[in-house]
Design goal:
52% helix; 23 helices; single chain; 7-stranded mixed sheet; 6-stranded antiparallel sheet; alpha+beta
Length: 669
């Protein structure tokens, strides 16, 4: 397909959808536009019945029809932006086949649609993953470009926090056995398609509240308009039916009524453009109201590539003994930190090879240490100060007073100290250094300007945590944190009425992600984490949480700005319509004709034309969003009132007068 024609085809499809949305089952979802559509039909009927002159009656009918069409078009354009992405996602999952393994280990080729949770499938290099799942066996590099748009391959491995795979992605190397976790029709791709097309978009609480307000205003103005003929009868004024409809349409907030659905859809599209899958529009909006951000230090505030840079032996301990123990404790450690310890020891000349009959002990969040058990009951461990201290004391060993001073010395530089022990003896400290990400301090300052407090979560000791927190510019920190500490901190913040956001990727993060008001799960993480969070970052970038907050803020500001503009520009329409209704019978009403419009008919048509045309003119702003810059709530409100309040008040006076001049020049009204 010629890409040059795609925008044109998108607009053509949106225009067609605008007509489709005139159907009753669609139009009733937007009460304001439903009233305008009813007014269009009533005006046409009144003109046919001879209650208005044909020229004026049909002109009003046509303008009202365009008003409804423009409102529908705004929503259709917003929806069309996701269709291109939905088409590529459908292509990724089309006609997928799977090599299912039964209980006897026999392999059978079946359609991916026949897979159910718990099924095991074999996927080899060059094949597509048939369904969402967790790797049970093996590891592989996978191209996730169909989902993330990023062509760089990623590594996925069984038994790690990066074991989740997505249906439709391509295995580039090796072979893996995947346990299916998603029902047909409820996969990650299915959810993305539904969201980008808007087919299951749920209105946010603020959007619902604003919709109710607009509906109440519409009903109130409808009651006022219905009573006007009776009031006019008491003073001998006969009110034209078509003019009453025109007055009602100008009174009700048609501008924001026509743009409100588009604003909601555009907010989710902006999140998707940032490669963040929000499971609902509510999640995007809540992100704009967040008070506290809980951020893991590793990978978010620092680069997360901690490297062993030094070994500090305690007094009376040979440097070679510490080097050898550190190497043995790290040989089976798959983490970057463990590999860097091995490299450092090798670089310093340690030649020891992996011993036979060794039992390696992996790191866990509970034990906070790892190591190796060697023949002869030799137990070597490396880990945090408190974990190794407890371990040595449990073996009835002795912890030298020098150790705490060594740990403090390393921690004060911002490095992470790991203590090494051999049986009941503490040997020394490994220094792990990390680098704070460039520009992160400025981003935290921006968040502080928005009234958002940042809390760093780290497993490091308090001295290291305090040093990094000060250097990064976070407001608070939680040191020596375990998974349950994150959950407790979130609940404590929420108990004080605050909205909390956090990032996570592991199964142990799932409870905290589910508890947080905004839980941003990494796409590279486990299925449990992705299910628990209400957002998934397809790029697996923990710092994306900062961008998500700004997207949420922009969503709220855009809706508030356009609502302010819509309500403000209604004022000018009153000055155009009311004199047209009553000036002939009540000459004193002519004083309200401050714009000096040429005739009552021209005044009505000018106000209605402006009312209709302003909707498509504001569509780009609704889709793009109001430009956001960090500021306090008071400052944002003041700016909105000045730009969109005063602007919305003055612009219609100028525009309606110009339209009146054009109409009076071209036609005799």
């Amino acid at each position: 397909m010629n890409t040059a024609n795609q925008p044109r085809q998108g607009h053509q499809r949106a225009l067609l959808d605008a007509f489709v949305k005139l159907a009753p089952q669609h139009i009733v979802k937007n009460p304001v536009m439903a009233v305008v559509w009813a007014g269009t039909l009533l005006t046409a009927a009144a003109t046919l019945a001879g209650l208005s002159t044909p020229g004026f009656g049909w002109a009003v009918t046509a303008i009202l029809f365009l008003t409804v069409l423009f409102g529908n078009y705004a929503e259709a354009v917003a929806e069309s932006r996701g269709r291109g992405q939905a088409a590529s996602l459908r292509k990724a999952r089309k006609d997928l086949m799977a090599r299912r393994i039964d209980a006897n280990g026999q392999e059978a080729t079946v359609s991916a649609a026949d897979l159910r949770p718990g099924d095991l499938v074999l996927v080899e290099a060059g094949q597509l993953v048939p369904a969402d799942g967790e790797i049970e066996q093996g590891l592989a590099t996978i191209n996730e470009a169909a989902v993330t748009g990023e062509s760089a391959p990623v590594l996925r491995a069984a038994g790690t926090d990066r074991s989740g795979v997505i249906g439709g992605t391509k295995v580039l190397s090796d072979r893996i056995v995947v346990r299916v976790t998603a029902e047909p029709g409820h996969s990650f791709l299915d959810r993305m398609i539904a969201l980008v097309e808007g087919s299951n978009r749920q209105k946010t609480p603020n959007e619902i509240a604003l919709g109710i307000l607009l509906m109440v205003m519409t009903l109130t103005f409808a009651i006022v308009v219905v009573t006007l003929p009776f009031i006019g009868g008491f003073v001998g004024v006969e009110v034209n039916f078509v003019l009453l409809i025109a007055l009602l349409v100008c009174l009700i907030p048609t501008t924001i009524g026509g743009l409100l659905p588009a604003i909601g859809i555009a907010g989710m599209n902006r999140a998707l453009k940032a490669n963040v899958l929000a499971k609902s529009g509510k999640a995007v909006e809540v992100a704009g109201d967040v008070d506290v951000l809980l951020l893991d230090k590793t990978g978010t505030i620092t680069y997360g590539d901690r490297q062993a840079t030094a070994l500090h032996a305690l007094a009376g301990v040979d440097a070679a003994q510490l080097r050898q123990a550190a190497l043995l404790a790290s040989l089976a450690d798959p983490t970057p930190e463990g590999k860097s310890v091995v490299k450092l020891a090798r670089d310093k000349g340690e030649q020891i090879v992996e011993p036979e009959n060794a039992r390696f002990v992996p790191f866990s969040a509970q034990s906070r240490m790892s190591g190796v058990d060697l023949p002869g009951e030799r137990v070597i461990r490396k880990g945090s100060l408190d974990a190794i201290t407890a371990h040595v004391l449990a073996l009835e060993g002795h912890v030298p007073a020098e150790l705490e001073a060594r740990v403090s010395q390393v921690a004060r530089t911002g490095a992470t100290p790991l203590v090494v022990s051999d049986g009941r003896h503490v040997l020394g400290v490994i220094e792990l250094s990390d680098v704070i990400k460039h520009g992160i301090k400025e981003r935290f300052a921006r968040l502080r300007e928005m009234g958002i407090r940042t809390v760093m979560i780290t497993g490091d000791n308090k001295l290291t945590a305090a040093h990094i927190a000060a250097e990064a510019g976070v407001d608070d920190y939680l040191a020596e944190a375990r998974p349950e500490d994150k959950l407790a901190r979130i609940r404590a913040e929420q108990a004080q009425g605050r909205l909390v956001a956090m990032v996570g990727d592991g199964t142990n993060d799932a409870p905290a992600l589910a508890q947080a008001d905004i839980g941003l799960a990494m796409n590279s993480g486990t299925q449990a984490a992705k299910e628990a969070g209400n957002m998934v970052d397809l790029d697996s970038d923990p710092t994306k949480l900062l961008a998500v907050v700004e997207i949420g803020k922009q969503q709220l500001i855009t809706r508030g700005a356009l609502t302010t503009f819509s309500l403000a520009n209604d004022v000018s329409k009153y000055f155009a319509i009311l004199p047209a209704l009553f000036a002939v019978a009540i000459p004193q009403m002519a004083a309200l004709n401050v714009m000096q419009l040429s005739s009552p008919s021209s005044a009505v048509l000018s106000a209605l034309i402006f009312n209709a045309v302003i909707i498509p003119l504001l569509i780009p702003l609704a889709l793009r969003g109001v430009r956001f810059r960090p500021a306090s709530a008071t400052e944002l409100l003041r700016n909105n009132m000045l730009v969109y309040g005063v602007g919305g008040l003055l612009l219609p006076f100028i525009a309606i007068k110009l339209i009146d001049v054009v109409l009076s020049t071209l036609f005799v009204l």
